[in-house]
Amino acid sequence: MAIKPPLLQSGDTIGLVTPGSPLDASIINTRAQTLMDMGFSIVYGNYVYSFDGIAAAPAQQRAEDVMNMFRDPRVKMILPTRGGTGVQTILPYLDFEEIRANPKIISGYSDITVLLNSLYQFSDLVTFHSLMLIDFRIDTPAYNFNQFFEATSTTISPRIISNPPNMPLMSLVPGNATGPIVGGNMTSLVNTLGTPYEIDTAGKILFLEEINSPTTMIFRYLTQLLMAGKFEDCVGIIMGECTNCLVSWGTTYIDLINEWLVPLGKPLMINLATGHGTYKAAIPIGATVNLNTANNTVTVLEPTVSR
Question: Which residues form the LD-carboxypeptidase N-terminal domain (predicted)?
């Protein structure tokens, strides 16, 4: 059973890091103020404001910020400012055993996907495919905050992950599967294939989402994941949104799912509010979930934080 980090409470300290692309300092400061207004204290990584081209700082420095947050006894949650590009490059510089000994909440999506799944895979830590610092703003939907705090600040169990109203979950292959849930952004996960940090989907529920990719690119991603055995190994599939994904050659995202994934015969759900969409469900990477595509439900079967 994966390690659950201690839950987040009002008054706790949140550590801000920029493990991928840089973010404008004014945005960081404005979003940090939102967290402080919510009752949290903030500590800043040494390189949180850095700008070094595509990535905020050299990989070792960005990794050092993440490690320092795990080491800091004041910090209860580590919150990336954004995803962007370059998160994968910090993985060789992380001490996964030290992280295992100092479990903390860490949340994000997009390029943060590779960090979340690696922390589960190599440190046995439950992580959260949910909000980043950029999402802590006045106009963020209440659904997103409710999902985030339900997963990180309560020990509610079981917890049903429901979409917001008027956004129905839909299932294309009926079935029932139970296992740890892994996954996230398709681009990021495909980039791990053939590396020491390749995602392990054996016996897992695999969920995927994407943004700004034409369906020709989604075709490539699905082909690569299929050839790498990731759909063969998993026990169930959840396809989240493909946000702003352009139709290519008259072929839609749903067309590709029907062509490539439905024939696998595994429990298959689509339309989960995840990642880059307006609405963001909180997916606990590494926690055991039940996927029931006969009833259109995703249920987290265990607490995802500890008291």
Answer: 14-129
**What are 72-109's pLDDT values in tens digits?**
999 999 999 999 999 999 999 999 999 999 999 999 99
Alpha-carbon gap, residue 286 to 125, rounded angstroms: 7
- Does the 159-300 domain belong in CATH 3.10.290.10? no
DSSP alpha helix (H) spans, the chain: 25-37, 59-71, 96-101, 113-123, 142-152, 186-190, 215-227, 230-233, 253-260
Question: What's the CATH architecture for 13-152?
Answer: 3-Layer(aba) Sandwich (3.40)
Give yes or no: 276 in active site.
yes
User: Catalytic site residue 198?
Assistant: no
**In the annotation, is 209 catalytic?**
yes
Q: Which of 50, 110, 123, 213 is catalytic?
A: 110
The residue annotated as part of the active site, out of 209, 210, 213, 241, is: 209
Domain boundaries defined on the chain: 13-152, 159-300
- Residue from 21, 171, 188, 276 carrying the catalytic annotation: 276
The predicted pLDDT at position 1 comes to: 81
